[in-house]
Amino acid sequence: MEEEKKIRVIIAKPGLDGHDRGAKIVARALRDAGMEVIYMGLRNTPEQIVETAIQEDVDVIGLSILSGAHMALVPRVLELLKENGVEDKIVLVGGIIPKVDEEKLKEMGVAEIFGPGTPTDKIVEFIRQRVGEIRKR
After folding, report:
1. What is the CATH number of the domain that holds 84?
2. Is the pTM of this model over 0.85?
3. Domain with 66 in it
């Protein structure tokens, strides 16, 4: 029987935001759930994030943003994914995102937004479900 490929996830902090506690908690929860997690640390550029996503052949890109720069950074990541022909990556955003911007980000291609206090099992389940749907295609 063929072993199912592990879900691969990047957790990245784009921009100048220096607060990474939530990102580390999510990274640990995903790892504990059996996923391969690449934690990129602080102060990544959209270019670095997309380059790493391509090199590591990830299924999911998790962006943690608390700085308020989400409407500049997330669209740039999505744009670079499209330019590189890797739009099949699931992009998730975590952090403090105003409701008015949530709809705009989802329209641009963000799969889901998880705010502060979201139970980590909800994030794990969302990723498993979405990756499962994509792999069945």
Report:
1. 3.40.50.280
2. yes
3. 8-136
